Each structure stands twice: as C-alpha cells, then as structure tokens.
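Think of the structure tokens as a kind of shorthand, similar to the way a musician reads notation: each symbol stands for something richer, in this case the local conformation of the backbone. In the example below we present two proteins back to back. Begin with the first one, reading the sequence and then the tokens, and try to describe in your own words what changes along the chain.
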Amino acid sequence: MGLMSPGEIDHNTFVVLKSAGLGNRIKLYVSYMQRYENVKIEKIPDLFLFENFEKIKAEDMSNHPWTHSGWRLLVNEDEVKYCTGEFKTIDQLYNDTPQYFIDKYLPVWQKLKIQPGVQQIIDSVTEDWDKDDMIGIHVRTNYPPVDDGSRSVWVDFEGFEREIESYPSTQKFFLATDHGPIADRYKQKYGDRIITTPKEEIVQHDNKVDDVYQTVSAFVDMYLLSQCYKKLILTWATSFSECSWWFGGCKAEVVMPTLWDKVPKDFYDIIYNRKDMSYTLQGNGNEEAVFAEGCRTFAPLKMGPNYKIKNWMVYDA
C-alpha cells in the first residue's frame, strides 16, 4: 500500500480501545490481527507485553475501523458450517474447538512477539520445568477487588483440590489465582508441589487501571500456565484461562471444575451462542441486529453511514 494522504481512511489498520480485561483484550488483538495488516491499541501496559503494536493517536478512530469492547475469538458468518456442534461461537470450547479454527487462529497467536524483558522473566521460572509433565491451575475467584464475587458461586473450589489430590505426591503444579488466600491455602496444604510467582496486592481490575506491573505480572502467570502441557485445571468462563490454552499451542487437556447447576441459563447462553439464536443491540432509540453477542466492529468515524460490515470487517457501501 502507498503512503496515505492526511485524513485518508486506511482499511488495513484496526484500532482496539482499552475497555476490557487482559484476556479479553488479547483475544481481540488476535481476532483483528487475523483480519487486518496492522493493529493499534490504546492500553499502554500492553505495549510492555508485545512488540506487535503501536499506541493509537487521537485521529485514529476517524481514519480506521475500531472496537471498544469484546471478548470473543471471532467467527465469520460464513464459517458457521465449520462449527461442528450446536454453537456458532468457539469461545470456552478448548479441546472441543473445531480444527478449522485452531488452524485459522493458532498461527496468529504464535505471531504475538513477547517483549524480551517479559520473556526473560518467563524463562527464568520455566528453565528447570519438565513442561510435558507440568500441570497448570487457574483459580479465578472473582472476589473483590478484582470483581464483585457474583461469579464465584459456580466455581467448584473443592473440585480443584480433588483434581490435585488425584495425582501422586511427586506431581508439580503451577498455580495462578486472583486471590492471595487461595495461594496460601494450596501452599500450606500441598507444600512444594505448588509453584507460584511473587505477587503484590491487586488494587483494582486490570480493565480499570493502567498499571504496568500488574498487567505484566498477570500476563506472566497466563503464559506460565500455557507452558503446562500435561493438563490445565481452569476456571470456566474466563478469557485469562482460555488465552493460556491458546498460547500453549492448544496442546493441554483441559478440565474446568464447575458447579454447572449454579450457572444461570442466560449467562451460559451468552458464553455459548447457539446457532438458532440471534442478538439485538439497543441504543439511542435504535435496534441493530448482530451475528453474535460479545463483539462489535465499528467503521471509521469519517465514513459516516457509507459503509457495510461483513465478517467483522468494514467495507465501503
């Protein structure tokens, strides 16, 4: 592509704003890296994680397609035929993810270039690991200050411990959690079988603060989980867990200790969009039909109404 004139709309670049948690943002980056040549981002701490991105400028939303929120790995409308089950979305499927989408997205995950300083931290932890024999655990409690705790009702905390206790005393586990007392309990109960990284107290959810240390620390845990190739014991319905599986090359067997009878049906249907479901966005007195819940692409502001969106990309009308 040649040089752009000042103010010219660029359909090869996409802008991701910062209103989402770390796992959600990474899934957005991957989704749009698959569709666009360049991705610009607003979340400053993420520039300390990856070499792929540059910071947005004030005029970028006028000149480029963009999104302000989302949490899915996007499925095009013409790709539903590759969704082998009852759902038209692929999030939280793990080992049941259709191979078509693994082939589509895994190369993009592998294109994410971790900043050398962050990679050095990761390597210093895993240098003596037998990754093929390491099990990762992610216990997301959603307790304050990370969240309001409402999603903790369906986390099967005893089920996580049953998983650990099903292995011999020689088995090592890497533990990531949003709640310090969980780490303390596991270390007291299981001793040096539990590996963790040092943590400072979390003050607020990552989507509300721009804290480089907190973001890097969280990402290091996410990536360390990905290096546990034997098995991942994960919390259901968190993108943090999901990213770890993708970063690990979709290798690990996944189990999610969950009290399924405690999960509200409407929330389950949000996570897993059935093929027979449709969604409507409401706002400013207007309704707009969308293909799936949890994602949206916006046209450059300078385009006005002269656009169409297909397969999450913006085209001239």
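Once you have a description of the first chain, move to the second and do the same.
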Amino acid sequence: MNNLNFFSSELYIMSNNSAKSTDLEYNDSYANQVNEIINTLELDSETDRSILKSRFLSEVVKYEQRKLHTKKYYDRFRFIVTVGSIILPAILSLGQMDPTKLPKNFDQVVYWSSWTISLMVTASNGFLQLFSLDKNYFEYSLTTEQLKTEGWQYFQLSGKYEDDKTHQAAYKDFSKSIENIKRKQVEKEFSGKGDVSKKKKEKPFDFQVELMKNLPDHLKPEKDKGDPDIEHGESKMKEIDLMMNDKIGKLDTLMGMLEKKNTERDGAVGNGTVGNGTVGNGTVGNVREILSDSIKGQILEASDEAVSNAVDKKA
C-alpha cells in the first residue's frame, strides 16, 4: 500500500513537472512575450494597441513562418546538391579500377547510380533557382530580425527611440519604421514582376549651379547678388546696342553699294556729267544721315523705355 502511494505521488509530480515545462515553453515564445509587453504599454487608446498587435506582431509571426517554411525546402535541396556533388566523383572514380577486380555488373551499377545522383543534383539546384529559395530564405530571415530588433528598441525606448520619454511619443516613429521595413521587403520580393511606377527623368547634376545655390550671400560673385530687374535692364541695353550696330552696318553696306553704282555710271558718261555724279553722291550722303538718325532715334526710344520699365519695377 505504501509502495502504491509512493508511486502515485511520483507520477503526480512528474505530470505536474511536464505541465509546467509545457507552459514554460509556450510562454517563452516570442509572440506571447511581445503580446504581454504590448498589453502593459501606456498608450492613449486601445486602437493603437490593436494596431501594434495586428501590424507589427502579426507581421513578425508571418515572416517567421515564411522563413521556417522556406528553410525546410532550402535545407533539403542544398543537402542533396552538396552530398551529391561529393558522392558523384567518388562513384565515377571507382569505374577507373581494374574490371577484373570489380564485382559483376558493377559498371551498370555505377552508370545508373551516377545518372540518378546527377539527375537529383541538377533537379535540386534547378528548384533552388526556380523558386529563389536561397534568396527568399535570406530575405525572410533578415526582415524577421529587423522587425524584432525594431520592436525591442521600441519597447525598451533605446536606440533611435532613446530621446522619447514615453511609448506614445515614439509610437508614430515606430509605425513608420515598421512600414518602411515592410515596404522594402515587398519591393525586393516583387521587383520586376509588377512595377508600374514610372521613373521620373532626373535632370543632370550641375555642380556649378548647386554650388551657387548653397553659397552664402557674402561669398557669391557680384553679378549674382544684383537686382534681377536692373540686370534685366542691362541685358536689354546690350541687346539694343548690338541691334543698333547691326542696323548701322547694314546701312553702310547699302550706301556703299549705291556709291559704287554712281561712280561706275559717272565714269561711263564722261566729264560733262561730273556735276550730276556730284549731286548723286551728295544725295547718297544725305540719305545715309537721314536713315542713321532715324534708326538711332528708334533705338534710343526703345532703350529709354526699357530703362524706365526697370526703374518702375524697382520703385
């Protein structure tokens, strides 16, 4: 009877220890730990608390599951590729031995074994590349650890959140960081598969222009510190001056051609018509003076108008 009681008590203790170990393992999971921490945070509303659970905690759990699921196939295929790459050369090297010392039908065994191993290695490597198992496994692992690290920094108010006094003050920055991590992961996962965004044409970088924009006023050249209206007026004056010189040059060319024609005509007629040639030359000179004065007058009026407009804008 005593032995029976002792056995029952030992069985009860073992069952209790087993239950405690199960509870301890369950409570030590990341999801339960973080869920308890979120419930104790001092937040202004329950909505913020629910968002933390739905958008942060659920994302960590989801990426953790994706990582483990991908890791299962990644490890299997990598194991086949690695082991097969080691065994295949060893099997092929056995075929180089003396046939008399090898078992019967050994060449067929070697052939089919090497063919099978080669097929398995090629297929496994093809599946790895086709489904991007290695890339997805590394990205899921990296994203999971980034989310966990961001979460622990927020809960502890350390790292980038050390300047915030409360969790509510750091709530928006934390949410923004989580969304950035999630967005970068989505862009990596679907890069080149559904990109409908149009890339904006970036203007070529002009070092001189950017340097002038960022220079202090006292370091800028004098021409960059002037009044834009006065500078506009000065540029207009230069344009008018160039136009006047061009008009006068064309007029001189025209008058020269007329004088040349009159001179040729006077030489053909003779001495009796010298007076007429003199009169023609005088007429050409008068026309030059009249046209020159007219052009100069128009250009001066235009220049006065440009200057007066600049002065009015300045006033």
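Compare your description with these statements about the second chain. The radius of gyration is 47 Å.
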